[in-house]
Design goal:
alpha/beta; Rossmann fold; Glycerate kinase, domain 2; five-stranded parallel β-sheet; elongated; EC 2.7.1.-; transferase; Glyc_kinase_flavodox-like_fold
Length: 401
C-alpha cells in the first residue's frame, strides 16, 4: 500500500509540474517510438529525434522512452527502460546453440521469443518452415525462472517457427510422443505424427509465476486466419507447407484436447493463439499465460504513465505507418494513451500509408515520414539516422518554436 501511495503521489506531482509548465508556456517532449525495422533500433530512433529537436529548440527538455509491442526489440526496449540485460545459451530455431538475452528487474522478466527462435537467427536466404523449433524459447523461459522471476512478460513475434509452441513446452518438461513411444521430431511438420501428449512434467515453478503473453497478433491457431495461413509464407512456407502445417497444428490441438480436456480446443481459437507460429497457443494451453496486447503490457512495464504525465508533446512512430499500425502496434498504443491524457501526439516513420483523417482518429495529430525529405526509399533505409534528424527539426519548428 505504501508503494502504491508513493506512486500515486509522484504521479500527482508530475501532473502538477506538467500543468505548471503549460501555464508557463513551457514544453517538455516525450519520445516513445518503436524501431524502424532494418534501419534503426528504438533507442537509435529516440537519439536521432532528440538530436534534431535540439538543433531547433535546444532548451526544451526531452525524455526518451523507447517502446516495443512484444515483438523483436522488446528486450532492448526494456533494457533502455532500466531493466538489466541477462544472457543464456539456448537452442536456436535450426537446432544450433545461440546466445539469447532477456531483461530482468525486481522479480519481473521480459522474455522475447525472437531472441531464441526468431527469423533474425536464420542465415540469409535459409528458411525451415516445417522443422524450425521453439525449444530455445522454453530454455529462455527456464532461465528467467532460474533467475527468480515472479512475473514473466513473454513477448512473441518475429518468429522463424510454426510449431504451436511444442518445442517450448518440451524444453519445460512436456513430452510429445509418436506412436512408437519416441519423441516427435522438432518443428511443426512432424506434429502430424503426434500420438500422445503428457504435460504433467512441466516445470512446477510455472504454477507460481504470472505469465503474460504479450503480442500485437490476435489470430487463432489454425484456419484461414491462423498462424500457418497468415504468417507461414513470410517464414518460407510454400502453399503445400502451409496446408501441411495447418493440418499438423490442428492435430496437435486435438491430441492436447484428449490429454487436457475441452479447454485445449477452446484455446486454439483464442485471440493470440496464432501468435509467433502458434507459440501463443502453447503459452495459453501449457503455461497458463494470460493474453494482453503487447504494447499495453510494455507501456506498463516501462513506466509510460508517469513519463506521459510529465510531457506536453509525445513523439511516437515506427518504420511504416500503415493499416497494421492501427491493430495493436506500438504507435497506436502510445497515441491512445496520450489522447486519453489530453496530450498531443505526432509520429515519425520511414513510410507513411495512412491518410490524415485516419491518423487523426488514431490520436495522431500529424505524421512526418523520411520519404518526405528523401523520396528515394533505398537512401531512406541506408541513411535513416541523418534523415530522421532532419525530420525532427521540422517537428521542432512546427510544434516547439
Amino acid at each position: 500500500m505504501a508503494d502504491a501511495a508513493g506512486t500515486a503521489g509522484s504521479e500527482r506531482q508530475a501532473q502538477a509540474e506538467r500543468n505548471d509548465a503549460r501555464r508557463g508556456n513551457a514544453q517538455r517532449v516525450l519520445i516513445a517510438a518503436d524501431k524502424f525495422k532494418g534501419s534503426l533500433t528504438a533507442v537509435q530512433v529516440a537519439e536521432r529525434v532528440k538530436a534534431g529537436l535540439h538543433r531547433v529548440a535546444p532548451g526544451v527538455p526531452v525524455e526518451a522512452l523507447p517502446v516495443a509491442d512484444g515483438g523483436d526489440g522488446t528486450v532492448a526496449a526494456a533494457v533502455a527502460g532500466g531493466f538489466e540485460r541477462r544472457e543464456a545459451r539456448v537452442t536456436g530455431p535450426l537446432g544450433d546453440t545461440v546466445t539469447a538475452a532477456y531483461a530482468f528487474k525486481d522479480g519481473t522478466a521480459v522474455v522475447e521469443m525472437a531472441e531464441a527462435s526468431g527469423l533474425q537467427l536464420l542465415p540469409d536466404g535459409v528458411f525451415a518452415p516445417l522443422t524450425s523449433t521453439t525449444y530455445g524459447s522454453g530454455e529462455l523461459l527456464r532461465a528467467a525462472l532460474d533467475a527468480g522471476a515472479r512475473t514473466i512478460v513473454f513477448g512473441v513475434g518475429g518468429s522463424a517457427t510454426t510449431d504451436g509452441g511444442a518445442g517450448m513446452l518440451a524444453a519445460l518438461g512436456a513430452r510429445f510422443l509418436a506412436a512408437d513411444g519416441e519423441p516427435v521430431a522438432p518443428g511443426g511438420g512432424p506434429l502430424k505424427d503426434l500420438a500422445s501428449a503428457d504435460l504433467a512434467g512441466l516445470d512446477p515453478r510455472l504454477k507460481d509465476v504470472e505469465i503474460v503473453l504479450a503480442s500485437d497478433v490476435d489470430n487463432p491457431l489454425t484456419g484461414p486466419k491462423g498462424a500457418p495461413a497468415v504468417y507461414g509464407p513470410q517464414k518460407g512456407a510454400s502453399p503445400a507447407d502451409v496446408e501441411a502445417l495447418d493440418a499438423a497444428l490442428a492435430h496437435f490441438a486435438t491430441v492436447l484436447e484428449k490429454a487436457m480436456g475441452p479447454k485445449a480446443a477452446e484455446y486454439a481459437q483464442s485471440p493470440g493463439a496464432g501468435a509467433a507460429g502458434g507459440i501463443g497457443y502453447g503459452a495459453l494451453v501449457g503455461l497458463g499465460a494470460g493474453f494482453r496486447p503487447g504494447i499495453e503490457v510494455m507501456l506498463d512495464v516501462l513506466g509510460f504513465a508517469p513519463a506521459l504525465a510529465r510531457a506536453t508533446l509525445v513523439i511516437t512512430g515506427e518504420g511504416s505507418l500503415d493499416e497494421q499500425t492501427l491493430h495493436g502496434k506500438a504507435p497506436a498504443g502510445v497515441a491512445a494513451a496520450a489522447r486519453a491524457a489530453g496530450i498531443e501526439v505526432v509520429a515519425v516513420c520511414g513510410r507513411l500509408a495512412l491518410a490524415p483523417e485516419v491518423l487523426g482518429k488514431a490520436g495522431i495529430r500529424r505524421a512526418y515520414a523520411l520519404t518526405d525529405v528523401e523520396p528515394d526509399v533505398a537512401r531512406c533505409i541506408a541513411e535513416a539516422g541523418p534523415i530522421l534528424e532532419t525530420v525532427a527539426e521540422g517537428i521542432a519548428r512546427d510544434f516547439l518554436s
